[in-house]
Amino acid sequence: MKKSSLKMIATVGTLLTLALALAGCGNNDTAANEGESSAQSKENKTLTVYSAGPDGLAANVQQAFEEKTGMKVEMFQGTTGKILSRLEAEKTNPVADVVVLASVASMDGMKEADQLQSYKDAENADKINSDWSDAEGYYYGYSASALGIAYNTKNAKTVPSEWSDLAKAEWKDKINIPDPSLSGSAVDFIYGYTEAEKTGWDIIQSWKTNGLQVNGANKEALDSVITGDKDATISGVDYMAYKAKADGEPVEIVYPKSGTVVSPRAVGIMKDAKNVDGAQAYVNFLLSDEGQKLVTDAYLLPGNKEIPVKDRAALDEIPQLTVNWKDAETKQIDILTKFNEIFQ
Amino acid sequence: MIMEGRRTFGVLLAIVGTFAIAPLLAILYYTFVNGGQLDFSQISRMFENDRMWHTLGNSLLLGVLVIMGTTIIALPMALIRTKTSLIKFDWLDIILTIPFMTPPYIGSMGWILFMQNNGFLQQLIPSASWMSDYFFSLFGMVMVMSLHLFPFLYLMLRNTLLRINGSFLDAALIFGRNPWRNWAKIVLPLLVSSYVLGILLIFIKTLAEFGTPATFGSRIGFQVFTTEIHSYLSRWPVDISMATSLSLFLLSVCLIIWYFQNLIGRKNTYSVLSGKTQAVREMKDKWYIKLGAWLYVGIVLLFSIGIPYFSIIVTSLQKVRGDGLSAGNFSLASYQAVFTSGSAGLSAFLNSIVFSFITASVTAVIGLFIALYIKKGETKKQQVLDFFSLMPNIIPGIVFVVGLIMFWNSPLLPATIYNTKTMVVVTYCVLFLPYSVQYTKSSLSQLDQSIFQSAAIFGRSSWDVYRHIFIPLLMQGILAGMMMTFIISMRELVAGLLILPPSVETGATFIYSQFEQGNVGLGMAVAVITVAMTVIFMFLLDWLQKRGGHAGA
């Protein structure tokens, strides 16, 4: 009995050691990095960034910034909602230095709630689109996405050209929209669209009658168009559609001529930031030509108009609705409630 | 002996108290205290909210329907596996637990991709498109959840039936009348108590489930408690006090159900465990029974494993997802991307392994001490500890996670583990401690009383007794508990979503975020790797148990 139970222990032990060794191998680099950073931390400290940026962009910015400054970045990625909730939960015990959100309205809300600090002297600040940024330097709109109609080129019978087209019979049960309570850009869209268009809510109602499905976060909504479950996504974020198109998926995006909403994404420094120098360096990097280049590589619109866009429509080619982002946050909560009432 | 002193009780209770009870108290505190004052407005705000009652209705309805669904699948399966010649095929049990070990959000994604408009089913059989409309409804959700949870009920029923098979039926054959009467008078009453126990646990598990409601439920607009709590915590506008109120309410519902389960359990327990080993009789079936049985097993396996895994594997292999199932559209690129050194997927997967391994080890040690202290739960103190250590099994994980976040962010604490990797391990340990306690307790209960007595007489010191006698004898149970904890930690989603520190991802959150923002094919590849590893571990676990059985005999 003793022998076999010993054998058993040995086998399990070996297996688990193997698993751990495997894990150890993969984690070697990170372990080494951690060691380095703790050695440096006395001079440089680490920088904690909460970013709602697209996955690839946030990682690229992080890597380039670390290489440039030698500072270690702790990155938390999530949707705008997740980041706001994390900040709320951590209120008594704040960790984040820099926050990057996919919604200027929420960013403005944070400024109003006295959670941000101003950084007026950011490098390149004058080149960044002033419509997307705070005049007092609390946040900068370093990039933006335009919201359009993303459709499946194999399944859609016609190319939609207006928002109202999607209420037609040929789109019956074939359309979806990202859930505005999950997607900052979808709230921006509904807010901007209903503010600028008097008939906005009637059109939304007509989509609902035509079988509009509210479908998770941005990517989930676009995914059901890619796999052919739906034919078109309303308020589809364009950079995701361009990215999918570049990967060979049968997707195309159009911006209706009557105009659409451009949803800026902004970066700001937390009031309680522990590493203010690092945070300012991060903002400077995002606004620099190098940072803006990374933004365009992710198919987003750059905050600095001088930087050329890549394989996509430039800002002045997109018909825009005029939207005022000041104090939008409180109005957006009403909009969200109204939207949820229609779709429940 | 060292495991009986007052100090031991104090230490164990302190550990369980800090990690499992404090979070629940934190929920109470945040719900009822506002700015240092007792305040009932939060809770009344919740009760005034129509949406809350709607959610409650949805959760309870779902629970009842899933009970029906799992019964329809599990009961015939248990009968087939005990009353027909299929009793020989023990490997079926491992295969049948695969659905339960599959992370539920991946299973339901598999179903969605298979059934949706232009999904894999319609590509294979274009005329089957009418099925999609019926599938994306409450019916489909209940089916997906039942197919995920049925192994749990099945194993309980099968074990009871196996025990009844032995001496009870022999006695009935000799003294009873006809087979049907034997069934109605003996088998059914014996089966009922374990059935009731099983379905109540299924009910609680359904209430606690997050993955399927988050993927399938959100698609058909079916909100339940867990998704509501999660959305108050992660959607804009954030409402933390609403989340704690809802958590408290869900906690109460589960405790009430658990109370009823205890009540029923106590009334209807018959001792069906005797020391004798049951002889497996050779069974000969008529051909149509055999055919029917295999057909049934085949259909259940097709629906619970075949279809979801078909979608998952195909998606992980697709080059262009918009091209569907066409020749030349397949490559191993996603797997290559995962196994590239330093890739996000790989490091997330390895993080999972490390967290799960540490969790398994820590819970094994704590579980061992708790089990040794509780023994058979005869004194009040033992029962108290027993209750607290098994509590995480009754209370939905999301409630604990919310509590842990509140507790470790409390300004009263001098230091906090929040936002560190330790927090992840602590959360996992709290959630999964019951597994190790249960496994160790059950192997302890199999030890004969005489071992304790002879140990007490001949043992040099009590520590020697533990080291040389109990721990080696219990090793098999401890290891089984460790494996189980490891497997379950590997697939934990909701804890990871809410508490992971910056720059850290686990396999589960990586997969989930691929659906939200990233590359679905990559997510599915990580899912396939995780499940493959889990299945290998399960076969290993089974092998260990069998070996342990021989060694112990």
TrEMBL record, chain A:
InterPro entries: Ferric-bd (IPR026045)
Binding positions for Fe cation per the UniProt entry: 239
Transmembrane segments: none
GO-annotated cellular components: outer membrane-bounded periplasmic space
GO biological process: one example: thiamine transport
Keywords of the record: Iron, Metal-binding, Signal
Single Gene Ontology MF annotation: thiamine pyrophosphate binding
Keyword Signal: yes
Keyword Iron attached: yes
Domain of life of the organism encoding this protein: Bacteria
Signal peptide extent: 1-23
Identification of the protein by name: ABC transporter substrate-binding protein
Annotated organism of origin: Viridibacillus arvi
Lineage: Bacteria, Bacillati, Bacillota, Bacilli, Bacillales
UniProtKB/TrEMBL annotation, chain B:
Membrane topology: Multi-pass membrane protein
Record PROSITE patterns: ABC_TM1
Main subcellular location: membrane
GO aspect biological process, one term: transmembrane transport
Membrane-traversing stretches: 12-32, 52-79, 91-114, 134-157, 186-204, 240-260, 291-314, 348-372, 384-408, 420-437, 477-500, 520-541
Subcellular location, record wording: Cell inner membrane; Cell membrane
Domain of life, per lineage: Bacteria
Protein name: ABC transporter permease
All residue ranges annotated as the ABC transmembrane type-1 domain in the record: 56-261, 349-541
SUPFAM superfamilies: MetI-like (SSF161098)
